Every structure is written in structure tokens, then in C-alpha cells.
């Protein structure tokens, strides 16, 4: 999360988001291993959630990189401090 | 049966008695140390490859937690897909001279304080709350068939929604790049 907040490079921020998502997925798998299943969850529910997190992260990285690359072709930089003007 | 988890199962404090502890601690360090390098390095390519090491460490921890299918999927999809995309992005947007990559000091201080507060909150939440801990941990089983059963049984709707999401992301990514490259 520190990466998301301090990086100026847009792809650096994306890498921070990947770290956060991985941490959450690891949490889910740990819950699946050590906690008892309840009425609504089964023994492997945490692993299914982690699978969905991986899929969602893949979709999000694809779209985020498309945005970053189109910004780069527009403004020749991906320094997020330069993106101050919201012109169309 | 709810009870607070005992803190003697903290990593790195157990006696390094058996091989499983050693491997667990190795993967833990492999995961945590490159995170600092991702956050603080001034070279974006170093950060991308530290992310690679981190993701390998997380995959190892998944396997140690009994999630063998998820560990392999992590390596294939996360490292072999997402990280490759990130490295493509890093390589295509370098301008030769590497820009200074972090913001100035007041912003960094605020970010560090915020992250520290969240870390403390997470640690307090996870150690002080009551979890329904299973007292008898089963042996790790092969999980692929069971995950398949769950995905097509109980979690069918999220499965289908995730596939639609991936389709939308695919089309959207192509559309965004086409409009910027071909349009104006």
C-alpha cells in the first residue's frame, strides 16, 4: 500500500496494487486452511475466492495497462504528477 | 468453537526444528523482502523483478498452506501473464533516463504513517479477534477436483460473472488502445 501511495510512475502504482491483491488472496487461502467451514462456506471456499482474485487482477491489469499505454502515447510520460490537466 | 489464536505460531519465532519450518520461513522472507524493494527502489525495472520474486514467494506459501492448485495457477496466471504484461508496460514506457520515482517527503511521511496505522490495525484485528479455528488440521489433499466441484456447483454464478468480466476487460483494453493509437 505504501507503493500505491508513493510511486510516481503509473506502472509502479500498478505493482503496488498487485501486492495488495496478493496479500488479500494469501489471507483467503490461510483462512481456508485454518478455519472451520461454516454453514455457507465449505472447506475450500478460500481457495475459490483466491482463484477469483487472480482472475480479477488479470482483468484489471489488462485494462490498467491499456490506460497507461494510451496515456503514454498521448503525453509521452507516465509520471502521475504530470497528469494535472483534465483536458479531453 | 471460537478462541483467540495463540501467538506462539508466529513465523520466525518457532524453533527452526524441522524442514517444514525452514521452508516456510524461506518463503516468508522471499515474499516480504522484495516488497520493500518494490516500494522503495528508484529503478522501475528493479521493482518489476522484485515483484517477480514476491509472487514466487506467495506461490510457495500457497502450496505450503495446502492450496496446490492455487499455487500453480498463481505461477501460470500471475507471473506468466500479469507480470509479463507489467514488464512489457515498463519496457515500453521507459524513456532512457529513469525519472525519480517517488514523491517528496511530506507525501511520503503521510503514506508511511497511513500504512503503519493500517498495519497495526490489521495485526490487532487478526490476533485479538475470535476465529473459528479448526483444532484438527487435516492433511493437505489434492485440491483440483474439489475446486472444480465448488466452481461448478456452489460458486457457479461468480464463475460466470468472472468470465464475463474477463471478456469485458479484453474488449475494453483493445478499445482503449485502438482509440488512442488509431483515432487521434
Structure description:
The complex is a heterodimer of chains A (88) and B (184). With 88 residues, chain A is mostly helical. Chain A has a single domain, classed as Helix Hairpins (Orthogonal Bundle), CATH 1.10.287. Chain A contains three helices and no strands. The longest helix of chain A has 31 residues. The relative contact order of chain A is 0.15. With 184 residues, chain B is mostly helical. Chain B has one domain: Four Helix Bundle (Hemerythrin (Met), subunit A) (Up-down Bundle), CATH 1.20.120.1200. Chain B has six helices and no strands. In chain B, α1 runs antiparallel to α2 and α2 runs antiparallel to α3. The N terminus of chain B is likely disordered. Chains A and B meet through α1, α2 and α3 of A and α1, α2, α3, α4 and α5 of B.
What's the structural blueprint in terms of helices and strands?
The complex is a heterodimer of chains A (88) and B (184).
Chain A lengths: L1 H5 L3 H25 L10 H31 L13
Helix pairs in contact in A: 2-3
Chain B lengths: L18 H22 L3 H21 L3 H25 L12 H24 L15 H9 L3 H28 L1
Helix pairs in contact in B: 1-2, 2-3
